């Protein structure tokens, strides 16, 4: 529907909400809302499904469907080829090291959004309100908070290994008192000894898990409902302590729940533990929404629910059902490429780094091959393809860029960071991380790319919209909803069918002058 037609018909909708809450579940497949619908309460997912604008499938149409790149995609409305976050980790040639997506641009270790290119939805909201809209993000891991919070939030907090929430010196030197107070009452140590019992489980049935003490406790905690509950509790504490939603301008609260992703790495998509996690999340969200209703009134709150990625089942269960599946050891890939390059060009040709999905060849490889770039790439790619589970390879050179899924790979290809080749794994094959991790996201297959999307609150048109939309559509849609500019690199479409007609928000029309005030 054209925007002029949209804004020219029907009564004007309510004013923008005082608080925008973006809830992002790491690892929440698009089929979960239907698969577990009968177990949901009226207050949690039931509320969103009944009263929201529901898109059952929003798709990340790129290769590296991982926490960092997808959080950046949600924030910018663009894919990694533009925003530059090509993976959770990659080899940075100029620094001669493997970096995390959230690493600072110096070797001094602190987390920041400095490797992200372009503005985010949060940045544009602050610019439109001259810094009066406050942004705060909480996450189970750094990427979810850092990329979605933009450059100048009043706070970006994420869980450390022990479950305590912290930040980095990019944002502030010391934690506010309310964060220290929260940490004293929550975290892995406080969860020690707790039993994770299945919902409706009989008392005489053993618990699904116990938060045992010792070295295993932090990992058990981060992949449990206790960590998800603490994330939402921290978000509510932030609303109270920072007075979010109490000002004259819309505030933005980002809640990135990482526990489902940590659990999925171990158990896959459809374990009994994952089912219980999803249903428990429904109950947690119901309580969270009720609390916001008591504090602010839900008529004053805009809620967006989506996810960063899905995941596949464990390979063992797929093989039992006759499907090819497995894990690809990175060392096998490196050894196969090195052997082929050495045979063709001598031992000075080899892999500098392989950080899935990108292969970085050594500078001496090109010297040994005397400018035969296409031949080197093809030799390396064909060698990698000899490893079980590797379906193919991609490079941007003509003749190497016409492979299945090439459009998705191109959307992840940021030339300065993407290496010389990208490897494409077969369906249901993932990188072998070892250490008990059963599977991983990071493909362009539908079990990784497809997530739900729900808009709820003033200004959204209730209903279910069954067209498949793109994850890059979310930020532009939110910007039109608020009447602000889209992020600088955004390529997505506005989901006009989900928006009610409205007048230009008051906070855009106010005569505000001067520079944007800094965050505290």
Number of domains: 2
Helix content range: 25-40%
The second-level CATH architecture of the largest domain is 3-Layer(aba) Sandwich
Largest sheet: 10 strands, mixed
The CATH class label of the largest domain is Alpha Beta
Number of strands: 20
**Based on CA inertia axes, which overall geometry fits?**
globular
Q: Mean of residue pLDDT? A: 93
Radius of gyration based on Cα positions: 23 Å
Gap between N and C termini: 41 Å
In the CATH scheme, what's the topology name of the largest domain? Alkaline Phosphatase, subunit A
Class derived from helix and strand content? alpha/beta
- Low-pLDDT runs of 5+ residues are 1-13
Report the portion of residues in β strands. 15-25%
Describe this structure in words.
This protein is an alpha/beta fold. It folds into two domains: 3-79 and 112-312 and 442-507, Alkaline Phosphatase, subunit A (3-Layer(aba) Sandwich), CATH 3.40.720.10; 326-431, Gyrase A, domain 2 (2-Layer Sandwich), CATH 3.30.1360. It contains 21 helices and 20 strands. The strands form five sheets. Strands 1, 2, 5, 6, 7, 10, 11, 18, 19 and 20 form a ten-stranded mixed β-sheet that branches. It has a four-stranded antiparallel β-sheet with strand order 13-14-16-15. Strands 3-4 form a two-stranded antiparallel ribbon. Helix 4 runs parallel beside helix 7 and helix 15 crosses helix 17.
